[in-house]
Amino acid sequence: MEIIIKPLTEELAADYFDFLDNRAFTDNSPWGGCYCTGWQMTKEQEKTELLDKMEEGFSYGDENFVRVLREIVIRQITSKALQGYLAYVDGISIGWCNANSKANFPLESANGFRLYAPAEKKEKAVVCFEISPEYRGKGVATALLNRAVADAKAEGYVAVEGFPQIHTERFEWDYTGPVSLFEKAGFTAITKQDGSIIMRKELK
Question: Where is the N-acetyltransferase domain positioned along the sequence (predicted)?
Fold first, then answer.
């Protein structure tokens, strides 16, 4: 099986939606309907751009909610606030990884994470993986992470960080990737707290 990795661009937005709408959550994942927007938004942005609009007559998961959420994603892709990689097999998008400069994240994301670091620190963060159920365990996440690390090094970044949670078996809410994924790619643990861990790979 040949896995092709491509950076997310405006031209690939249709493939991004195709993956998340049609293949990502076909196993009834609790993250069904997620478009990976929360990392790039502040809590205030989430409130004004999404939650406040729900009071105008729509709720989670309905057609209007999805429409507004897609509008947010399109803005994030166009502005390059949302960055990452799509994985393809036979020309079909089957995986996603959210990877971005830490300078592009807000001081506190809508989901509560604090990832921001000044641009001069030259650090990237890999924060989310989603793989089509039938392609899990076949090296797709590894290919996505390896590409993110290789590009970060080529772009002059000094380190990449990941944020897995500690579990002894697969956990359906575990969108940040398992510890073993990062260990295999040469990351080492630098901080452990409340069941989560920060792993880091130095590039220079």
Answer: 36-204
Query: Do 20 and 97 contact (CB within 8 A), yes or no?
Result: no
Q: What is the pLDDT of residues 48-65, one digit of tens each?
A: 998 888 777 777 667 888
Q: What are phi and psi of 47, to 5 degrees?
A: -65, -50
Q: Is the dihedral of CA 174, 179, 183, 188 positive or negative?
A: positive
- Please give the backbone phi and psi of residue 43, each rounded to the nearest 5 degrees, phi first: -60, -35
Tokens of residue 188, six digits: 């080492």
Which residue ranges form the domains of the chain, and what is each CATH number?
4-202 (3.40.630.30)
Q: Nearest Cα to 150, choosing from 120, 185, 116, 184?
A: 185
d(CA 147, CA 140): 11
What is the amino acid identity at position 113? F
